[in-house]
Amino acid sequence: MADLSVGLNCPTCGGAISVPEGESIVMCQYCSSTLFIEGDQGVTTLAFKNKVLKDGAASATMSWWKKGLKARDLKHTGKVLETYPIYLPFWKATTRVAGWICGYEERRRTDSKGNTTTERIPKEVMVLQDYVFSEIACDPGDLGIRTLRNLAGETSFADFEMIPTFEATTSKDDAVTHSKNDSLARARAGARVPHVTFERLHVLPRALTMIYYPVWVVRYSYHDRMYMDTVDGVTGQVLSGRAPGDPLYQSLAMTGGAVVGGLISAAGIMFGGSSTEITAGALVAGLVVLGITYVFFRHGSERVEGDFKSKPASIGGALKQVQAVSKQLEGLR
Q1: For residues 287 and 258, is the Cβ–Cβ distance under 8 A?
Q2: pTM
C-alpha cells in the first residue's frame, strides 16, 4: 500500500509542504525552516477528499445491480430514493515485526515396496516486515464496512466539505492492540513454518493515523422493499450492500444440486462394491454438494456483499456441518 502524506503551509513563508505519514519533523524546501509536527495525543488526523458526485454514486449503484446473481429485473424495477455522503473514521496503524521463527515441516515418502517414512525438514525463518492494519473507529451499524480498503487519494488535515461525520468511539489503545495481534498472525502465516519449536518476535508500532473517509449511502426500492448500498467516495466503487435475489436462480441451484448430489451418492453405492472407503467418500461428496446448494437456496432471496455482522451462512459453514456426517461415516470403514 502507498504511504500517505498530508499537505500543509509553512508558517514562516507560506510555502506548500508535504508531511509523510508518521513523520514529526520536516524541513520547508523554500525557506529551510525546520518544523515540528504533532498530532492529537500522538495521532495524526487527516481526511480524504470526496471525489464522487451524487449522480456518480447513483450510477455506481445501478451498475452494481447488473452484477452477480441479483434479481434479473432489478436494473429495470429498482429506483434510487436517496443518496447522501458521510465521513467514516478509521484507524490506520503501521506495525513492524522483527525476529525469528524456527521449527520443521514433515514430508512423507513412499518407496517402491509401499513403505512410508516421514522426514522432518528443519526451517529457520527471519521475519522483518511492516504490516498495515485498518479498522473502523465507530459503530457502522448496518453499513457493512469494517476495514479501509483504499489508501490512495488526495488528503489533508481537515477537508470535510460540510459532509456529516461519524465520531470516533473506539480508543487508540484498542487499535494498537488489534494491529499488533493482526501483524503477529500475518507474520506467522507468512513464515510458513508448520511445526514451530522456537519463536522470538518483536512487535514495534511505527505510526497511528485517524483517517476520515468519504462514503456515499444509497437507499433504493424494489417492489415496495427497501435496500441500501455504500459507494466509495474516492474510487466510486460499491463497498457493501444488500440486493434482492432471483427465485429462478434459487430453484435452478436447488434442482441441479439435488440431481448432482444424488447421482454422486448413487454412483458410489453402485460401483463402490465392497470398498466402504469409496462408498463413504461418494456419500460425503454428495452431501457436500447438497449442503452448498441448500445454503444458496435458503439465503438466495437476498444477496449480501460487505462486512456485515449477520451475513448469511457461508458455504464454509455448510461444509463444517457436513464434516460431522463425514466423521460418522468413517465408522463404516
Answers
A1: no
A2: 0.68
